[in-house]
Amino acid sequence: MRGMNAPQPAAFLQPNESANATADLDKLFAAQHRASRAMVDVPLAWRLERLERLHKLIDTHGPALADAVQADFGVRSRQLTDVADYFVLLATIGQLKAQCARWMKPQRVSTPIYLQPASAYIQRQPLGVVGIIGPWNYPLQLTLGPLATALAAGNRAMIKPSELTPHSSALLAELLHSTFGADEVVVVQGGPDVAHAFASLPFDHLMFTGSTAVGRKVAEAAARNLTPTTLELGGKSPCIVDASCSAADMAGVALKIAHGKLINAGQTCIAPDYVLLPEGREAEFEQAFSRAVGQLFPADGGSKDYASILTARHLARLRDLLQEAQAAGARVVELDTASAAHPRQMAPVLVYNAPAHSRLMTEEIFGPILPVLTYRTLADAVSHINARPRPLALYWFGTDSATRNEVLNQTVSGGVTINDTLLHIAHHNLPFGGVGESGWGSYHGEAGFLRFTQQKPVLVQSRWAMGHLFYPPYGARFQQIMGLLKRWL
Ligand code: NAD
Is residue 117 reached through a cis peptide bond, with omega within 30 degrees of 0 on the bond before it? Predict the structure, then answer.
């Protein structure tokens, strides 16, 4: 074990307990580490059985967990948790159960002529202990999704959910601790201090989902142990409306943008952060967007489908962003909608002419504020995107495939959905992740399975091997063979 004497797990490893003290972390980790080294070869049956337990946990306790998320947010409908957390989770678990046997198999590779008649393959093995640090915005999908993938790949896992969702984090801990042994899955609760100590454990892999600022700290802490990381971070995801969108298209385009922006009230990592609109189409877009908002969240007496902002602190930050932009000359259009039912439901807002240096245009917004920027030529829109950190997601709406390809070829982002928003995250055969400041490493589907897997190359020499022909002393025969081989390469 790197840098640790394996202490014996003590009484706190009993089910239904959570580790709040930093000192306990080493012991919890040691128990998982020891178990992972005692069973290096993790059979398919072990993996499937753990996935089944997780599936059952969601089936049985899904409604209680959704209620806990609702209690954390204030307003967060059960249906939103159903579609954004459970649907994605159940699809993930279903795919893992169906594909695990195939993905864990050794993968034969062809052997180059100069090594024949040797053969070679890649052996896929569990890494050992995976750490998972989760954010608050989708507290179930973003902890249990990586957990399912880690288990399918034959690993143990320690989870640190967000301290800002205390109800769902506590219930998750209770349910996972009664479903799994502490040497299989353990939940650690706590704030930044515990999180920092957690990130400093010598995991075999550490997966972090959260902000770019905290991601830097996680990468630093993990680097001290040479722990490889997957960082799923945030950023400003642009949404381009192309000139090829007709006036008739605009209603549908605005509805899709409004849905992507306003689901969970903008508190979604891949929500469109701002819109890039062809110059002159502002009024048309504003009208269509306003209508779309009314359609999604009718204003009569408040909507329980429109999530509230998580805390008063987060709401105050959003208001500050708006005020700063407004004071600097931006035009703010507050839309009439269902924001009356709860003091932290914030009405959607469109913002025009926000200065480029304002916090609204430099920080990830993570709320229901949509800046609208206009562009004259496609090259202007592309250079605006390329002058900024690479985004987690990019959206493009239009009918002109040449322009679409130009945008796809000239920009680099974590992922893309064309003519809609968000949906690439739900396609489990697409790797999901960021690039540059929006993160590194991707998961979902086989990409996720491989993220938590050691791909060990194995070369099997043949008894008919001619390797000795290359051994010293190097004489004329060596020169002759090398000459022949070089001609083949
Ligand atoms: P955050 O970075 O504030 O917190 C995330 C987690 O990190 C929490 O569990 C927190 O306790 C922990 N943490 C805090 N300090 C730490 C430290 N020093 N070391 C280790 N861990 C520490 O993020 P948040 O506010 O919970 O979530 C919002 C952010 O997450 C947004 O930026 C959003 O874009 C991003 N996000 C990204 C994805 C993705 O898949 N790329 C998904 C959801 C959210």
Answer: yes
For residue 484, how far is its CA from the centre of ligand 1 (angstroms)? Answer: 57
* Ligand 1 neighbourhood includes 234 CB (under 6 angstroms): yes
Smallest CA separation from ligand 1 atom 18, residue: 196
Cα–ligand 1 centroid distance for 268 (angstroms): 12
* Residue owning the nearest CA to atom 23 of ligand 1: 210
**Length of the chain (residues):** 489
Q: Which CATH architecture has domain 10-233+442-454?
A: 3-Layer(aba) Sandwich (3.40)
CA pair distance 58, 89, nearest whole angstrom: 9
Residue 455, both tokens: 């791909």
**Domain range summary for the chain, segments of one domain joined by +:** 10-233+442-454, 238-430
Mutate to test the pocket of ligand 1, among 73, 92, 133 (most ligand atoms within 8 A of CB): 133
**What are the φ/ψ torsions at residue 194 (nearest 5 degrees)?**
-65, -40
Q: Rounded to a whole number, what is the distance in angstroms from the first to the last CA of the chain?
A: 43
Residue pair 285/254 in contact (Cβ under 8 Å)? The answer is yes
Q: What is the pLDDT of residues 314-343, one digit of tens each?
A: 999 999 999 999 999 999 999 876 566 789
Residue in the structure block whose two tokens are 């279903």: 94
pLDDT digits (tens, 9 = 90+) for 116-134: 999 999 999 999 999 999 9
pTM for the full predicted model = 0.94
Alpha helices in 342-396 (DSSP H): 359-362, 378-386
Which residue's C-alpha comes closest to atom 12 of ligand 1?
Answer: 195
CATH class of the domain whose range is 238-430: alpha beta
pLDDT at 176: 98
The pick from 143, 269, 437 for probing ligand 1's pocket by mutation, whose C-beta has the most ligand atoms within 8 angstroms, reads 269
Provide the pLDDT for residue 7.
Answer: 34
Look-up of token digits 């900024």: 388
